[in-house]
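Hi again,

Forgot to attach this to my earlier email, sorry! This is the prediction with farnesyl diphosphate bound. I've pasted everything inline since the attachment limit keeps bouncing my files.
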Amino acid sequence: MDLKEKIDKSKLPKHIAIIMDGNGRWAQKKGNSRIFGHKNGVKAVKETVEAAGELGVKYLTLYAFSTENWKRPKQEVDALMSLLVATINSETDALIKNNVRLLTIGDIDDLPHDVNRNLQELKEKTAKNTGLSLILALNYSARWEILNAIKNILSQTHKQPVNFENIDNDFFEQYLYTSGIPDPDLLIRTSGEYRISNFLLWQIAYTELYFTDVLWPDFRKNDLYHAILDYQKRERRFGKISEQIKK
Ligand code: FPP
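C-alpha cells for the complex follow:
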C-alpha cells in the first residue's frame, strides 16, 4: 500500500501550515548560490499544493517571507520577490483549473509594487474558488499581527466603547489576518530546525507540531503524507484527559 492510501480521509487536518526552511543549505551543499535553493523550493511548493488539494485539505499556509527576511542581502531579497512574481504568473492557470483560492496574510502593501499587484490580481481571479485555500504568509510577523490587532481594537474604542467582558478569543480573532480561517491542525517545519520563528503565534495554541530533517527543496508529496500519518496517530486533547476525548 502506498503512503497516500494509508491516510484516513475522515481524520484529515483541515489546515496545514508549513515553515519552509533549508533552501540556502540545500543549495550550499550542492556548491550553488542560495538563490538556486529558492528556485528549487518552488518545485516543493507546487508538489505540496497539489498533494494537499488532491487529499482534500481545506487550508494550506506557507511561510514564504517574514518581516525579518528583509534583513537578508538585497540580492537575495530581490531574487525572492522576482521568484514570487514569476511563480504567480506561471501558476495562475493551474491554480484556477484546480479550484485553488489564493489568500495572503502579512502586510503585502509594503511588498514591491509588481509583487503586490500580481498577488492582488490572482486573489481576485481565484476569490470564488471552493477547493484548497492556499494562504501565503508574506511580509508576515505574528507579533506584529497581535500588536496590530490590539491597536485596531483600541482605535475602535474611540468611536464605540468595547465592553471588557466581550473581549474573548472569538472577538480578538476577528482582528487577526486569519479572521475566518480555522487554526492550523498541523504545523510542519523542514530542515531539522526546532523553532516557530514568529509564525502564527496566536493560532498554533493547540496545533500539532511536526519537524523533519528534509530540506525544503527536497520536500515531496510523500513527505507531506508522512507528516499527516504522524499527525493521525496523535490524540488531540485540547487540555482534557484521554477518557473525555474517547467518549
Ligand atoms: C527558507 O529557507 C526559505 C525562505 C525564506 C523562502 C521560501 C521561498 C520559497 C520556497 C520560494 C518562493 C515561494 C513561493 C510561495 C512561490 P532559508 O533560505 O532560510 O534556508 P537556510 O535556513 O538553509 O538558509
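The chain has a mean pLDDT of 96. Residues 20-25, 34, 38, 41-42, 45, 62, 64, 69, 80, 83-84, 87, 136, 191, 216 surround farnesyl diphosphate (CB under 6 Å).

That should be everything now.

G.
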